[in-house]
Design goal:
Blueprint lengths: L5 E5 L20 H13 L4 E4 L7 E2 L2 E2 L10 H9 L6 E7 L5 H14 L4 E6 L4 H4 L10 H20 L6 E3 L6 E3 L5 E5 L4 E5 L11 E5 L3 H10 L2 E4 L4 H13 L12 E10 L3 H15 L2 H12 L25 E2 L10 H15 L3 H8 L4 E4 L1 H13 L5 E4 L9 H6 L1 H6 L12 H5 L6
Helix pairs in contact: 2-3, 3-5, 5-6, 9-11
């Protein structure tokens, strides 16, 4: 059976995809940027707009990380405002389970689901570092198993709150027009090693019952958490085969949790460069990558792995001859941390082998190793390759991360989406009113 492609838009904001130097790159903070990207996504019948979240400004070598100099607006505030400018587009936000509390988060998402008439989604994430925790009362470090255990309990608790208010327990007085609440409405009580709360939930059951649940993470614990509780999982796999392997793995875990394969959607993040021809698109993509990774940016990224000051190195020269520093505090603090590299020495060996084999300078190497999944080509080439990934079970759709804010998806919406629609693999209208309906997910009981 031919599968339908799901598409979503990531507001690029503060990440190494954004080309800050392009004159078409506008504000990362002004609301007009959010409304433009959301409007493009809804015009192209995307499932949802996704906002990442940073709970602390990252630092590199004691200074604010380059990607955070514009700041980070609050996710709930932006999504609530976008609820009033969109009609069908889902509104997905990353909200941390390590430093927030279930009652507050459940209340905010239930409110957003009401404001948007059933379009809210929650990307449940954890935070691993004490650096971020310094912004919070209960700061500090949680080992990975405890982070995911807290996340699991957090989601369970929030779900109990969402489900605590039954619609049939809200009665209307026909004579006065007043609403009379049953004493049990909204009542909850939860006690475990992480949370001990009781009371009455303040928000009536929302249109979706509860938000669509997303999860991002490639670790064993992350995959298992997604298989047990998430409606969709975000990935970063950059090849067709890697995507197929990941897809098969997470789908195979669902049966153990009493779930069907269709109950978890797989969304890799990807960038797209559309040109008049394949050659034109490849040329544009090369220019974009050079803009994304300047000489100073390449040295800064290399410092994250080597964990030491490399400012004296020439970005157009070779890698340092000495090995990374594996002891001491990380030179980069926050979510841009070198934790992404795992074994520093092993990663450095791999980079040296690649650089020697392909005769790459530092900058050329960083351009190579930081590349994400990309579709590059003419509109027909991009449409064909995206459809191939979905039909061959490497994904159920894609989260598009444009390199320009806010117009980075305009070309895709105008030139690629119509071709997907002509192939019969992408909708021409939204099939439902809620995000859960548009994603084809089963309703919440």
């Amino acid at each position: 059976m031919t599968k339908q492609i799901h598409l979503a838009a990531h507001f690029p904001g503060v990440n190494n995809t954004t080309v800050w130097s392009d004159p078409r790159s506008l504000s990362q903070i002004e609301f007009s940027s959010f409304t433009h990207l959301a409007g493009t996504a809804e015009r192209a019948r995307f499932d949802f707009l996704f906002l990442a979240e940073g709970l602390r400004l990252r630092e590199h070598a004691g200074r604010i990380h380059d990607l955070d100099v514009v700041g980070r607006p609050d996710t709930f505030t932006v999504l609530a405002a976008l609820a009033g400018t969109t009609d069908r587009l889902g509104l997905a936000g990353t909200i941390n389970s390590t430093f927030n509390e279930p009652y507050e988060v459940a209340r905010q998402f239930a409110s957003l689901d009401h404001l948007s008439a059933g379009r809210a989604a929650w990307n449940v994430v954890t935070s691993w570092d004490a650096f971020t925790g310094e912004n919070f009362r209960r700061g500090g470090f949680l080992p990975e198993d405890q982070r995911y255990e807290r996340a699991r309990r957090f989601l369970e608790t929030a779900t109990e709150l969402f489900d605590s208010w039954r619609g049939d327990e809200i009665l209307a007085d026909k004579d006065s027009g007043a609403f009379l609440s049953d004493p049990r409405a909204g009542e909850f009580e939860h006690s475990d090693a992480h949370f001990d709360i009781r009371g009455r939930f303040t928000v009536p059951r929302s249109p979706q019952g509860r938000p669509v649940i997303f999860q991002a993470g490639d670790s064993e614990a992350g995959r298992e958490f997604a298989a047990s509780a998430a409606d969709a999982i975000f990935t970063r796999h950059s090849t067709l085969q890697a995507g197929k392997d990941f897809y098969a793995d997470v789908k195979s875990r669902l049966a153990a949790h009493g779930r069907d394969r269709e109950e978890l959607l797989v969304f890799p993040a990807t960038s797209v460069v559309v040109g008049d021809t394949d050659a034109d698109a490849q040329e544009q993509a090369a220019i974009i990558r050079e803009q994304q990774v300047s000489g100073p940016t390449a040295i800064s990224f290399l410092e994250q792995l080597w964990n030491t000051d490399l400012s004296e190195l020439d970005p157009d020269g070779p890698l340092p001859e000495f090995d990374p520093v594996v002891d001491g505090d990380a030179i980069t603090q926050g979510r841009a941390s070198t934790r992404m590299f795992g074994d520093r020495l092993a990663t450095a060996r791999g980079w040296r082998e690649l650089a020697e084999a392909e005769k790459l300078s530092i900058r050329e190497l960083i351009i190579e190793v930081t590349a994400r999944q990309s579709f590059i080509g003419s509109p027909s080439t991009v449409a064909e390759e995206m459809n191939r990934f979905v039909q061959e079970d490497a994904s159920d759709g894609f989260i598009l991360v444009p390199h320009l804010t806010p117009g980075g998806l305009d070309d895709f919406a105008d030139r690629v989406v119509p071709l997907l629609q002509e192939r019969g693999v992408y909708r021409t209208e939204y099939p439902g009113t809620t995000l859960r309906e548009n994603l084809g997910l089963p309703p919440v009981p």
